[in-house]
Amino acid sequence: MSVTLKDVAALAGVSRSAVSRTFTEGASVSAKTRSKVEKAALELGYSPNALASSLTTGRTKLIGLISNNFHNPIFLEVFDQFTRALQERGLRPLIVNLTDETEPANSVRMLRQYSVDAAIVASSTLPPSFAKAFHDAGVPVVHTFGRSATSPEVHVVGIDNVECGRMAARELLARGYRHVGYLGGPKDATSALDRHRGFTEELCDHPEINVTHCFASAYSFEAGRSEMLRLLADSPAEAYFCGDDILSVGALSALAEHGLKPGKDIGIIGLNDMEMSRWQSVDLTTIHQPIKQIITSSVDLVEQMLKEPQRYPEARIFPCRVIERGTLRPRL
Amino acid sequence: MSVTLKDVAALAGVSRSAVSRTFTEGASVSAKTRSKVEKAALELGYSPNALASSLTTGRTKLIGLISNNFHNPIFLEVFDQFTRALQERGLRPLIVNLTDETEPANSVRMLRQYSVDAAIVASSTLPPSFAKAFHDAGVPVVHTFGRSATSPEVHVVGIDNVECGRMAARELLARGYRHVGYLGGPKDATSALDRHRGFTEELCDHPEINVTHCFASAYSFEAGRSEMLRLLADSPAEAYFCGDDILSVGALSALAEHGLKPGKDIGIIGLNDMEMSRWQSVDLTTIHQPIKQIITSSVDLVEQMLKEPQRYPEARIFPCRVIERGTLRPRL
DNA sequence: GCGCGGATTGCAACCGGTTGCACCCCCGGG
DNA sequence: CCCGGGGGTGCAACCGGTTGCAATCCGCGC
Fold first, then answer.
1. Which of B95, B99, B280 sits opposite A257 (nearest CB)?
2. CB proximity A201 to B under 8 Å
3. Which of B281, B283, B299, B327 would you mutate first to test chain A, the one with the most A CBs within 10 A?
4. Do A170 and A272 lie in a common domain?
5. Among A114, A90, A144, A140, which Cα is nearest to B50's?
6. Cβ contact (<8 Å) for B252 and A281?
7. Does B2 contact A112 at a Cβ distance shorter than 8 Å?
8. Of B95, B109, B276, the CB nearest to A93
9. For a tag on chain A, would you pick the N or C end, based on fewer CB atoms within 10 A?
10. Are residues A38 and A82 in the same domain?
11. What confidence category does residue B167 fall into, taking pLDDT thresholds of 50, 70 and 90?
C-alpha cells in the first residue's frame, strides 16, 4: 500500500539508514547520496511515517488540546489561535472535547496512549487539580486560562481573575453606581469564584455600596439571559459585572426584552472582549483579556517544555484593561 | 520512563504475546492468564501504546478534521458536534486549520505522515477537488457541507445548496417582495455559487421581479455588514437572501446603523439557523440546515469507510426548511 | 606513495506492539 | 489406555523508522 523507507532505499540503491538520514535534520549524508534518495523519494511519493519514527525518537509532535468551553463564542477565537500557533511550530493538535466530563482520568489515559508530547488544558472553569493529573502522569502540561495563585505544580498562562473582579468593581464605583451586582459563571468554575472574590473584596471598603451576587448555570447566552430575567423580576441592581461576555450578551437580551436600555437603565460590564462585543448591536463595555498573547505564550511555553520537560513551573499573568463602549453610564 | 508490554509480561510471568492478547478484543487468552496480566497492568499503570500498535494493525483511529471556517460562529456548533461524535466512536480528531490555505497538498502530506484512518473536510467553500486530493492519496475522505452534484468520486454529506437558493427565492416571492437581492459569501466558495444559482434560476420564471446580487468577501460578520452598508448607500432591494446567518447578522447590524427595521423596512432571510439566530435580539428568519444530522451521518460514514475503504461514493443530502422569525414581512 | 583523520555508510539492534505458526496441554471418546 | 483435537501459549518475524558503532571512503599533507 504505502511506500516505505525500504522501497526508497531499494530504488535509490542505498541502505535504509541513508534514506532515514536524508530525512532527519542535521544527519550526516553526502550530497550525492542525498540527491539520489530525494529523487527516488519524489518518484515514489514517499513521506516518512511520523508515528513509526516517534517510536524511537520518543517525540510525536502531537499536542493534546483539552477544553470544555464549546458553547462560548470566545472559544472560536481561542481555538483558531491555538490551532494556528501550534501548526506554525510544526505541532499537531489532538482535540479532547470534555463537555460533560470533569474527571481527568480518561483524557490522561487517552493522551498517553497517543504519546502526546504535551497537553494544553484550555479552560477557565476546571480546577488546578485537573491539569495536575497530566503532570503527575508525566505529561508536560500548560493550563491556559487557569487559576494562577494556587497551582505551583503546573504551568499556568492567563489573567489574574481576582484582579479583574477588582477592576470591574472600581469601574462601577467610578461611574457612581450605588447598588451593584455580580452575575458570574457556574459556582464551581474557578474563574467565576476568583472574579467574585475580587469584586466583593474591592467593595468591602465601601460599606455604602449595596452588593448582590448570583451565579449562572453555565458560561452561555441562555444562562446569562435567564439569570438576568430572574433578577429583573425582583428589584435588580443598578449595574452588573457579568463574569463573561457571553453572559453579558444574554443579560443584554433580557434587558431588551424588558424594554430596558443598557448603560442607561441598567449598566453591564463584561469580561473577555470577544469579537461580538464590538458589534454595533452589542457595543459591550468589557474587560479585555489579551487572548492572542495568552495563547502565543502558552504555545511558546509548550515548545520550551519539549526541550526541558522538568522545567520549573511558572505562572504567566497578562494584564487586562477596560474597554469603554456603551453599556455603562459615563464616568463621573 | 513509560511502562511497556515487556514490563507487564515480566511482572505477570507470561510472554509479551499473552499481554498483547489480553488487550486485544477477541484474542484467545485463558481466564487465568488474563487475570494475572490485568493485575500486573494495573499495578504498573500500563496502557498500550496506540501508535506502536498502529504500526502492525494499520489503524490509528486518528481522523483528520480539516476546516477553514474558523470565523463563523456556526463552526463552534459544528466543531462541538464533530469532536463528540468522533469521541463516542473511539476516534480521535486531528485538526487542520486551513485558514489561509486552499491547496490540499500540505494537509494531505501531513495527515498521511500521521497515518490518519480517514479525513473529514468540513467546509462549504472548498471545491470538490480539495477532498478528492485526499481520496487520490489513498486517504478515505468525507466532504461535509460539500458541493453535492459534481463530486462522484468523493463522499459528500450536506444539503442541496441550489435548492436552498430556490427555497429562499420562493419564500421572498411568497411575501410579495418585488425587488430582491442575493448577498452571498465569497465568489470562490462553492456554496455561495450554488445558492446564487438556485436563487436566480427560480426567479428566472418571474420576469416581473427585479433581482440583484453581490458577494461578500468572506463568511463573516464584518463582510456582511460592510457589504450591506455599501448596498444601503445606493437604492437597496426590498429583501435579501443572505448566504449565511453570519452574513445576515452583519447585514442586520448595517440596517440598525441606518435606523432601518428588519422585516419592516428591509427583509432578510439567512441560512444555517445557528444558535444566535434564535436570540431575541437577532430573531432571524432563516433556512434551517440540520447540522447535527449532517455531522452524525458524516461520522457514521467515516466509520463505515474504515471497514470498507473502497466503498462506492455517495452523496447524502438532507432537506432544509424555512424557520420563520422576525426579519421577513408576513406571507401574503 | 603512504599514513591519517574526518566524513559517509551500512549493519544490526531496538522502539512497543501484533500475529502466524508450531507446540504443548488437557480432556473426552473409542 | 491410547489417540485426536481444540484451546492456550510462546517464539520469532515483522510493522516503519532511528541510531550506535565499526568499517569504509576520500582528500590531504608529508
1. B280
2. no
3. B281
4. yes
5. A114
6. yes
7. yes
8. B95
9. N
10. no
11. very high
- Do A167 and A283 lie in a common domain? yes
pLDDT tens for each residue of A68-93 = 989 999 999 999 999 999 999 999 99
Domain containing residue A138: 62-159+290-318
Strand partners, B156: B143, B315
Which of B95, B99, B134 has the highest number of chain A CBs within 10 A, making it the mutation to test binding with A?
A: B95
Q: In this structure, is residue A244 part of a structural domain?
A: yes
**Is the domain of B142 the same as that of B166?**
no
Burial readout A73-90 (b: 16 or more C-beta within 10 A, e: otherwise): bbbbbbbbbbbbbbbeee
Residue with grid cell 516505505, as numbered in its chain:
A4
Q: Is the CB of A307 under 7 A from strand C?
A: no
**A29/A21 Cα distance (integer angstroms):** 7
Strand C closer than 7 Å to the CB of B17?
yes
Beta strands B286-288 and B321-323: pairing type?
antiparallel
pLDDT of A243 higher than 60? yes
| Percentage of residues of chain A with pLDDT beyond 90 | 90
pLDDT per position as a tens digit, B20-79: 999 998 888 888 899 999 999 999 999 999 999 999 999 999 999 999 989 999 999 999
Instruction: Residue B216: name the closest of B236, B203, B205, B231 by CA.
Output: B231
Residue B152 predicted with pLDDT over 80: no
Does the CB of B30 sit below 7 A from strand C?
no
Mean pLDDT along residues A32-50: 93
Q: Which of residues 31-70 of B touch strand D (CB under 7 A)?
A: 32-33, 52, 55-56
Pick from B83, B138, B84: which is nearest to B108 by CA? B138
Contacts A–B by Cβ distance under 8 A: 120
- At A25 the pLDDT is 83
**Residue A149 pLDDT exceeds 80:** no
Are residues B154 and B178 both part of a single domain?
no
**What is the rounded CA–CA span in Å between residue B311 and residue B155?**
9
Residue in chain A nearest B55 by alpha carbon: A52
Residues 10-29 of A with CB under 7 A from strand D: 16-17, 20-21, 23-24
DSSP three-state, residue A120: strand
pLDDT digits (tens, 9 = 90+) for A129-148: 999 999 999 999 999 999 98
Residues B12, B15, B20: CA angle, nearest 5 degrees: 90
The whole-angstrom separation of Cα B141 and Cα B98 is 16
Domain count, chain B: 3
pLDDT greater than 60 at residue A124: yes
Does residue B263 lie within any of the structural domains?
A: yes
Question: Do A112 and A202 belong to one domain?
Answer: no
Residue B190: Cβ-neighbour burial (10 angstroms; 0-12, 13-18, 19+): buried
Which of the residue ranges A69-73, A85-89, A249-253, B250-254 would you say has the lowest mean pLDDT? A69-73
pLDDT of residue A1: 60
Q: Are A92 and B94 in contact (CB under 8 A)?
A: yes
Whether B282 and B165 share a structural domain: yes
